[in-house]
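# step 3/5: fold
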Amino acid sequence: MPRGNQAASGRETGGGGSRRSAVAALLMIVAALLVMIALATYDAGDESHINLRAADLPGVVTGDQNVRAMADTVHNGLGLVGALLSDFLINSTIGYAVLAFPLLILLWGWTLLRRGDARSSLVITNYTIIGALLVSVSFGMISLIAGPGGPAREWSGIIGLSVATMMAQLIGRAGGSIVLVAGMLLTAVLAADLDVHETVERLRAA
């Protein structure tokens, strides 16, 4: 194959890859924004009067009156889908701290779209996940200490409360609290120290 044809073929292949990356990045950003809307507009009241499964959602299209009646009472910004999604993500995982995950998807979508530094995004992702887990377990521990008057389940989720319960059984509530506070302080210090080092490196490079 002549060199000119090879170069043209290479440009077409590269252009196709760039377009696919851009499409994937935009889909990630859109998905992240939708999940953020669902989580931000979560209403605990939706759970109490919606007895619905994901398999029942087509009832909105087919004209199921019960499903449509439920849809009219939902307060979530994404309707029935948002109510189901936010209820699962908040109550069945790590509570309100789960909001960190669509933010991370948004970060990675933006990184992919701009062809940014994946290493920085990976570091941010690691610290964010650790921080979100620590916050969730901390609220679970507070709930155990405070009893019925403590934070609602939405603040810790099932995972946060379960891990807090195991910690309390192993090293007691006081010991668990100390470990969690130390963990959050250590994470904050390491993240801040890394940010300072990266800033210094950028200044040197400039």
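# step 4/5: annotate
The longest helix spans residues 153-205.
# step 5/5: archive (pending)
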